[in-house]
Amino acid sequence: MTNADVAALFASLADLLEYRGENAFRVRAYRNAARIVESLVEPLATIRADPSRSLEDLEGIGADLAAKIGTILDTGRLPALDEAAAGVPAGVFAMLRVPGLGPKKVRALVEGLGLETLDDLAAACREGRVRGVKGFGEKTEAAILKSLAFVREHADERRLWEEADALVAGLLEWMRRCPAVERVEGAGSWRRGRETVGDLDLVAIADDAAAVMEHFRRWEHAGEVLLSGGTKTSLRGPGGTQVDLRVVAAPAFGAAWQYFTGSKEHNVQLRSRARDLGWTLNEYGLRRLESADLEPPEATTEEAIYRALGLDWIPPELREGRGEVRLAAEGRLPRLVEAADMRGDLHMHTTDTDGEDTLADMVAAAIRRGLEYVAITDHGQRVTMARGLDETRLRRQWERIDALNAALAADGPAPIVVLKGIEVDMLERGGLDLPDALLAEADWVVASLHYGQSQPRERITARIVEAVEHPAVNVIGHPTGRLINRRPAYDVDIEAVIAAAARTGTFLEINANPHRLDLDDHLAAAACRAGVRVVISTDAHSVRGLEVMRCGVLQARRAGLAAADVVNTLPWERFRDVALGRTSPSDAERRPG
Ligand code: DGT
Ligand code: CA
Ligand code: CA
Ligand code: ZN
């Protein structure tokens, strides 16, 4: 049971008591208890396990609450809550979570209309029955319906990392404008680069925590304040996303930033390592288990915390409890690939198919991004919706690429090499959507599966393995086809695909589009272990689309990949020699400046 779990139980109890119309004093006491527990930085279990301390020493926690917390920690249950819930329709809890509906309103609705579930509530709103209840009008009815639709749409939905990143960037900028803030950083799953992010976590250094909280609540996107304590404030940001801000003193910043970056699993492993070494670790720092009065090691930086535990500093992307602690102990952490390592982008579209920007614009943008080579990979003819290219149109595009390369090299060394590529489609019946002889002339071939995605596992696997084995195919695009939050991967034996890629030297893509990130971190790591090299590609459909390379790099980092594991970190000449081995680029002499 975490502090948050305990707090949630008290908050539910307060809601239920209020719903039942019980003594307002008791309601307030439990609501306060929830707030106090939630804003504690130290785990309740730690305090309780320490024989020299008592839960009752915590401000605002008396004997009764301390006993209830003890019961929760031991049993996971709060008996008073079970009692209060007896006879209350199960749907009441869900109704209490509808924005704008407090316990009193919910009770009026449940009793006035005999509602039992959220669906009942929605139906009552639609049928105009809610406005008949005392205290409700047409406006409230409409507002409830809107809230219900929103809650339903976004329940359990985690934000894509890129969206979360935009929020964090804006929020950090805002918080850094607060004079009381000495330093503020993002933590949690955002910092670890997870493909989706639940809530946002910020850690700040300040002496005047109240001033920081006040500034936070004035953020332009700040919505409902969920919790406001001395060291922690939680509120809803855009789209209902929760943001947690914690304020600590400078000497504990490293410990707090480490703790709130997580992951939970990683922290559990660190704590257990600390215990083995005779320390206790929490968000305040490290203390000697036996002699608490010994001067503790400094906790100002994360490095200091890891160092004190005999570990190299671990990049946040690796902090998932997947063996990184052992590697850090043995000094064997990989040197992870960085965005600055990327030299080429090998999957992008233009206005010739479904891109928004022209060939010339895409190449100009790639030059501005400092890339040494790009492959233009518009869709093959099977993708009719995107006006996929047939042989004639593809050859015409290649002529324009030849001309563009010549123009780029007209006065001195070309700033970039443009490869003549194609994204061929794996046909439903097998085979590719353009002739082999044509593909043999391409500099770079991406093979993707867009149609027949619901075929049985053997069919899908056979189609992809066939493409892997095709002599002209360099890389498999978005190998599993998943779309985050929207569509699961197709049913494919990905291990067979990885094995075939290892056998044939075909590359597998990490598609950097934040909706795809395909291969994901686990599969990219598996591919790498099997000896497959990956290509990180943007699959850009516009100039702006080229920016998502960093999302793909994050995913590769989470997979533990070094630059050497990623083909398009190679400088042009090495890339040409090593990666284009099986095809012959039309002009191997071309060199960027
Ligand atoms: P999310 O928000 O679901 O995408 O994932 P996180 O990892 O950001 O999780 P969150 O926001 O619940 O907590 C942020 C970090 O705080 C988490 O990664 C580790 C730390 N943390 C929170 N609660 C606990 C806990 O009960 N035990 C431990 N060891 N760490 C915790
Ligand atoms: Ca979080
Ligand atoms: Ca959080
Ligand atoms: Zn594409």
Written account of the structure:
This protein is α/β, with parallel strands linked by helices and 593 residues long. It has 4 domains: 3-153, DNA polymerase beta, N-terminal domain-like (DNA polymerase, domain 1, Orthogonal Bundle), CATH 1.10.150.110; 159-248, Beta Polymerase, domain 2 (2-Layer Sandwich), CATH 3.30.460.10; 266-329, DNA polymerase, thumb domain (Beta Polymerase, domain 3, 2-Layer Sandwich), CATH 3.30.210.10; 339-583, Metal-dependent hydrolases (TIM Barrel). Helix content is 42%, strand content 12%. It is built from 24 helices and 16 strands. The chain has helices at residues 3-19, 24-39, 44-49, 63-75, 79-85, 91-96, 103-113, 118-126, 138-154, 161-176, 188-192, 209-217, 253-261, 264-276, 302-308, 324-329, 359-368, 391-408, 436-441, 457-469, 494-504, 521-529, 549-558, 572-579, and strands at residues 159-160, 183-186, 196-197, 200-205, 225-228, 232-236, 242-248, 279-282, 285-288, 344-345, 373-376, 417-425, 444-448, 475-476, 507-511, 534-537. The strands form 4 sheets. A 7-stranded parallel beta sheet has the order 10-11-12-13-14-15-16. Helix 1 (3-19) packs antiparallel against helix 2. The longest helix has 18 residues, at 391-408. The radius of gyration is 29 Å and the shape is globular. The relative contact order is 0.07. The model is unreliable at 582-593 (pLDDT under 50). The chain binds 2'-deoxyguanosine-5'-triphosphate, calcium ion (2 copies) and zinc ion (ZN). The site of zinc ion has 5 residues, from loops.
